[in-house]
Amino acid sequence: MEFEASTQRNRSKHSDFEASSELLEFDEIESPIGTVIVVARSGVLFALDFEDCSDRLNELLEARVGPVRMERVDDPGGLSSRVRDYFGGELDALQHVPVEMGGTPFQRTVWHALRKLQPGETASYGELAASIGRAGAARAVGAANATNPIALAVPCHRVVGSDGSLTGYAGGVDRKRWLLEHESSAR
Description:
By secondary structure, this protein is an alpha/beta fold. It folds into 2 domains: 2-87, Double Stranded RNA Binding Domain (2-Layer Sandwich); 105-186, Winged helix-like DNA-binding domain superfamily/Winged helix DNA-binding domain (Arc Repressor Mutant, subunit A, Orthogonal Bundle). The protein is 40% helix and 16% strand. It contains 8 helices and 6 strands, in the order H-H-E-E-E-H-E-H-H-E-H-H-E-H. Strand 1 and strand 2 form a beta hairpin. The mean pLDDT is 89.
């Protein structure tokens, strides 16, 4: 798998890898829009991304905790099951899973605000900025969105342009469109 290969490359960059690295559990599950990588630490969702974004995922993980070792585990903390439930139509399946987001205080504020957006609901960057008391900080909200380590459960795909247009998404605009259409039944 692409993700496992990329974690192997990271190991080779660090000579004292085993002694200095953080052990995280991961699982890979198939979805209608590609393989999803679920990363957990102690049963808490630590990262979630798509396999074709694994280089980005590894960079975000290493920036958060330094070198990481990954151990494949089936359904860590029941989180893979929750992701499958989401794709199976249980749109609120990820709303209350425990997450460990990392980030700066501002990023965490933005990410917590994202978690308040319900399936089928969208907000513009400006609306999200205003909701956290930082009207005029739409670009900063966009930057925080771009570094969100937990796709789907911290639903950055629900943020759209001020005119309702689909704007950038780390997983690709086609995936963003699919996710919003998938959630449209919740309206």
